[in-house]
Design goal:
By secondary structure, the protein is an alpha/beta fold. It has a domain at 9-221: Rossmann fold, CATH 3.40.50. The chain is 31% helix and 12% strand. The chain has 11 helices and 8 strands. It has helices at 23-34, 65-76, 88-93, 139-154, 175-178, 206-216, 222-225, 241-250, 252-265, 276-281, 293-301; strands at 14-18, 42-47, 79-85, 103-107, 110-114, 162-166, 183-185, 194-198. It has an 8-stranded mixed beta sheet. Helix 1 (23-34) crosses helix 6 and helix 8 crosses helix 9. The longest helix is centred in the middle third of the chain and has 16 residues, at 139-154. The structure holds iron/sulfur cluster (SF4). Iron/sulfur cluster (SF4) is lined by residues 49, 60, 128, 139-140, 143-144, 232-233, 236-238, 330. It comes from Anaerobacillus alkalidiazotrophicus. InterPro entries: PAPS_reduct_dom, Rossmann-like_a/b/a_fold. Residues 125-236 form the Phosphoadenosine phosphosulphate reductase domain. This is Phosphoadenosine phosphosulphate reductase domain-containing protein. Pfam families: PAPS_reduct.
């Protein structure tokens, strides 16, 4: 993609933050508001990796994520919008002699379907590879990147508009991300709409991100409170042995779902062919809080009903997952 000079913010019709609920995209939101951009101009888009509405299949994601993002939106008076591929990662993993799932989004409470018409019928039955190469690490494009682009390209609200897409990658996270531009022409830019991409926290340190939370006494996604250093999928393919052990400890049923799927497919998530059980056996659960905060944060992380009143903490504390580096997440 080509580097670009951004327009003055007031010249964009829409500013979309691609919001995972994790610390880096949250820092983008804090920063945009600090710059004085009106909340009405900002919207947060989240791609639900387990599908949504009638086709939600609890498989890979933290149950709390969507309601946490919704609560953040309500707190700041910012619109939130969810998009997904039918049946999410589960359906794509189990796809047999068929096309990939349709894409859905909600518009003013109305569900809109973007049917899959192109592509080849094929069978997946293999986990995404633990690789930076998105041709084999299929989860990121199939349930996130392509879903976002299809909705932006097809949503009538963005036709002939100027759009700024904000994402939270940081150079500190990986050698791959260190090479990213701060601003560029977005892949959705076309004759029908101008779309720029901006990574406002690209050179921020992790400490600076947590300082922004502390300043607001803002409760981070419960995953961090439990000791996860990233908020990505709960069962992210890049999870370290410690994270698998921690998942098994706090959500054995969810962990076992993935274990059973590995057995059924006769294919391990781990590229070195360790089963999830073998990998979890190599990990430690030391990072999980040891006092009564554990059951409180587990309950919150596994619920689908996060309330906006819980966003501001009385006594803010650095979460157990802070400042541990970027291990265990996409590269
Ligand atoms: S968070 Fe992990 S499992 Fe989820 S889409 Fe990204 S790389 Fe795949």
């Amino acid at each position: 993609m080509k580097k670009v000079d951004l327009l003055p913010f007031q010249d964009y019709d829409h500013i979309i933050i691609s919001e995972s609920g994790g610390k880096d995209s949250m820092a983008c939101l804090f920063y945009l508001l600090d710059l004085g951009i009106e909340p009405q101009k900002i919207e947060m888009w989240h791609q639900s990796v387990d599908g949504g509405h009638d086709d939600l299949i609890e498989f890979m994601d933290w149950p709390v994520t969507e309601s946490y993002i919704e609560a953040v939106g309500q707190h700041f008076g910012i619109n939130t919008s969810f998009q997904w591929r039918e049946g999410g990662i589960y359906n794509e993993l189990m796809r047999k002699d068929s096309l990939t799932g349709d894409v859905y989004y909600c518009d003013n409470g109305k569900l809109v379907k973007l049917p899959t018409r192109n592509g080849k019928r094929s069978t997946r039955h293999k986990w995404p590879a633990m690789s930076p190469d998105l041709r084999v690490r299929w989860c990121s494009p199939y349930v996130k990147i392509d879903v976002f682009r299809r909705v932006l390209n097809n949503h009538p609200r963005f036709k002939d508009k100027k759009v700024l897409v904000v994402t939270g990658e940081r150079r500190e996270e990986s050698p791959n991300r260190a090479k990213y531009f701060e601003t560029e022409i977005h892949a959705c830019n076309s004759k029908k709409r101008l779309v720029h991409a901006w990574r406002p926290v690209i050179d921020w340190s992790e400490q600076r991100i947590w300082d922004e939370y502390e300043k607001r006494r803002f409760l981070p996604h419960p995953a961090y409170l439990l000791g996860w250093n990233r908020t990505s999928c709960f069962g992210c393919i890049f999870s370290t042995a410690d994270l698998w052990a921690m998942m098994r400890e706090i959500a054995p049923e969810r962990f076992n779902k993935l274990v059973e799927k590995e057995k059924e497919l006769n294919h391990t998530i781990d590229t070195n062919r360790l089963t999830l059980e073998q990998k979890a056996n190599l990990g430690a659960i030391e990072r999980l809080p040891k006092d009564r905060r554990l059951s409180k944060w587990v309950k919150l992380a596994l619920s689908r009903n996060f309330r906006k009143d819980d966003l501001i903490m009385e006594n803010w504390e650095l979460p157990a997952g802070a400042l541990l580096g970027a291990n265990g997440g996409p590269v």
